[in-house]
Design brief:
The protein has 14 helices and eight strands. The protein is of the alpha/beta class. The protein has a single domain, classed as Rossmann fold (3-Layer(aba) Sandwich). It is globular.
Length: 311
């Protein structure tokens, strides 16, 4: 059990200190503790539509990052329909929800999956928390900050749609990975996601993964269509990071509860995702990240009052 109210009071105090506002906080990657350590890359995986492969991509990309030598954490941000723990075949005794209701600290709910990939699971079924309250958002960001020295990359899986929770996860990340398939409904939802996130979160850049494409050409056509409307109507940039083909090995791996990059390492899907992992890690032409999580929550606290958060 930990005291969320005292955490909140500390956050409010820190937000009032002069160095916490604006550019100084943006540049200060030292975090709450004052230690100098590079902040991890935080990537949110989203896409609007259900069933396009967000969760599978998160789990398998996490494993690719581990194989590239990155200390990687995946967070299940899909309360209620959580299934990262199922795909990674790990047992979760406590979950993110225990943190959100103040019964556990984040570091105590992290479990270890295949090859040392770390996971913060969520619970499935009747969620005790469906929509994050302001206080939960702040406490959660503070908790994530407290473990950030342990990781190089943090990947967040999100539910379908562009709910407030999805907006929160996208805002707390430095980069947004959009997963889309060639289906027109997926294209429409990917566009809607960019529209909402550009308007509510002022996102200016997205990275596109095309999943379940039949060929490179088909994937590139998806990218071209989305990128031209994103440029023209939303004034946002879309970067193509690669494609994962439609592949039986992916479906089989779900039944076998083993990530496909582990069970079928030479399948076309695994080759595609490995390329994506390297593109994301080593060919990062994104604009300057939006800032550390600390910057995000301090900005949030600074713009609010105690009463709002006290509720
Ligand atoms: N590249 C692929 N090839 C074949 N089937 C896929 C592929 N990607 C995803 N799938 C199928 O789609 C289903 C939904 O994937 P999932 O990651 O749970 O989607 P989401 O999280 O977006 O709802 C998987 O269970 C799998 O059967
Ligand atoms: Mg999912």
């Amino acid at each position: 059990m930990f005291d969320q109210a005292s955490t909140l009071r500390r956050l409010m105090e820190e937000a009032r200190t002069p160095q916490s506002s604006g550019a100084s906080a943006y540049n200060n990657v030292a975090g709450v503790t004052g230690k100098i350590s590079p902040a991890p890359r935080v990537l949110t995986v989203t896409g609007g539509k259900g069933g396009v492969g967000k969760t599978l991509t998160t789990a398998n990309l996490g494993l690719c990052f581990v194989r590239e030598g990155m200390r990687t954490l995946v967070i299940d941000g899909d309360f209620g329909l959580a299934n990262l723990d199922v795909l990674l075949n790990v047992r979760a005794d406590s979950t993110l929800e225990d943190v959100l209701v103040g019964e556990r600290e984040l570091k105590d709910v992290i479990v270890t999956g295949p090859e040392g990939l770390r996971l913060i699971p969520a619970s499935s079924g009747m969620p005790r928390v469906s929509e994050l309250g302001q206080m939960q958002k702040l406490v959660l960001l503070d908790q994530i900050e407290s473990i950030q020295d342990d990781f190089d990359v943090v990947l967040i899986d999100t539910p379908a749609g562009v709910s407030k929770n999805v907006q929160y996860w996208a805002a707390s990340a430095s980069e947004v990975l959009l997963v889309a398939t060639p289906e027109p409904t997926s294209l429409a939802d990917a566009y809607a996601t960019m529209k909402v996130l550009s308007q509510t979160n002022h996102e200016t850049c997205f990275k596109l993964i095309v999943n379940m494409a039949k060929s490179d050409d088909e994937a590139l056509r998806v990218f071209e269509r989305l990128s031209s409307v994103a440029n023209e109507y939303l004034n946002v940039r879309l970067d193509y990071v690669g494609m994962v083909p439609l592949c039986d090995s992916v479906r089989n791996s779900v039944r076998e509860r083993t990530p496909y990059v582990q069970r079928y390492p030479f399948s076309p899907a695994s080759r595609g995702l490995r390329g994506i992992a390297r593109e994301v890690l080593f060919n990062n032409n994104a604009p300057q990240p939006k800032g550390t999580m600390q910057f995000f929550w301090k900005r949030l606290v600074a713009g609010q009052n105690v009463e709002t958060f006290g509720r």
